[in-house]
Amino acid sequence: MPGPLHQGLVYLLNHNPHLVFDLARRFDDNLGVSCVGYEAASNELPDPAQTGGILHADGVHAALAAIPEAAPDAAPQRVGGVAVEVQTTRDGLKRYSWLSYAAGVRRLFECRGWTMVFAPDREIRRYYERMFVDEPRACPWFVDSTLLPPIVETREAARDLAKALLTVVFRARLIQAVPCARAALEALQQSTLDREDRWIYNQLVRASLKDEQLSRLPKEILQWDDDWEMSPMELTSAYYTRGVAAGREDGLEQGLEQGLEQGLEQGRLVQARRLLSQVLDHRGVRLDDSHRARVDGCTDLQQLESWLHRALSTDDADAIFS
Length: 322
Known about the structure:
With 322 residues, the chain is α/β, with parallel strands linked by helices. It has 2 domains: 4-222, no CATH class; 238-320. 53% of the residues lie in helices and 12% in strands. The protein has 15 helices and 7 strands. A hairpin with a 7-residue loop joins strand 2 (44-46) and strand 3.
């Protein structure tokens, strides 16, 4: 199951089809002609390559346009459909399935259809864009930050809250990320959305930003106190335990290289102490407890080597360890 970033985006886009088609018009002007509404369908699409096969997109919408004045009682006509795809990870199979999504939308709505991809991570988006660099006709529509200018005023964010929230996600690693987040969260706090929707969108913003960025936002608009004392139930929650495990795994990877070097250093120290002891025993040098403690406790390889050189030329313990 995808995390709050993916699921929050899917929820946002499926509940705001106007936002999807506002962006779609940047790719096809015809979608903006006489549009009077939108139609949502199940995320199940007919697979044009397999009879009876089903494809699953993240969302499916159609734009409805007014019919000519000559037939005022007729239902609005579908002028275009979009299969919505949210991508936060890499999947090589999208090279084929996204083409099928577009064909499935055309078959379902019996109008033109496309696949629109929302990949807020720039590197993930570039991974998919490279798939179609030699096949521009097969390329889906990729939404990026250039289609979403910064919204840093609360009043402007309130006019189109969905767009403001999407802007935060796509600009989370760019300048003005924090002002955009503040404007969107303040507008969200003032909105008439129900509590569940506000919670989902709040988590979407939090899942997009780094800790350093969150620390620059007022806690009252985050509706979250990072300094709260975690209860036993929270300490055993899936999010917490998974985060701890991921942190340990990252720490292990980072520590392997450091650990290898430290292990080699420890090995050199052990070998130097052992060689010094063998030379002292061979030369009949008797050590008292203080001398042995200095050898056993020494963590300076150069010091051990210095004692070893002295032991090769004298059998006086005090002279060796002076």
